[in-house]
Design goal:
The protein has two domains: about 45 residues; about 50 residues, no CATH class. It is about 60% helix and about 15% strand. It contains three helices and three strands; from the N terminus they run αβββαα. A three-stranded antiparallel β-sheet has the order 1-2-3. A hairpin with a 5-residue loop joins strand 2 and strand 3. The chain is elongated, with a radius of gyration of 26 Å. About 0% of the residues are buried.
């Protein structure tokens, strides 16, 4: 009979530590997400214009955040932002131009 109690105690102990590990993992994931978001904000706030070296600011254009230089007024796109701008529901001249370039090279 003591084996049954030992098995039960061991099962409860295993469940307790599994739950504690899960809580710890969730806490670490939340901290990582928070620190990653803070690092991204810091990076975006300290980016310099490749053309003139002045600070870039994020501007929302057609629901896409693009970087704009405060001095030379240049617009700079991060990875994937050009595709987001060209695949909008309302295709403008830029979308048609980009699609024609893509079809020539694709």
């Amino acid at each position: 009979m003591s084996d049954a109690w030992d098995d039960r105690r061991k099962a409860l102990e295993d469940e307790y530590f599994r739950r504690k590990e899960q809580e710890t993992l969730e806490k670490l994931r939340a901290e990582m997400n928070t620190s990653a978001a803070a690092a991204q904000e810091t990076t975006a706030a300290t980016m310099d214009c490749p053309r003139c070296g002045q600070k870039l600011t994020e501007v929302k254009y057609a629901d896409v955040k693009v970087d704009r230089c405060t001095a030379c007024k240049g617009w700079w796109l991060d990875a994937g932002e050009l595709e987001q701008l060209t695949t909008r529901e309302d295709p403008g001249w830029f979308s048609r131009f980009w699609q024609s370039l893509s079809s020539e090279h694709g």
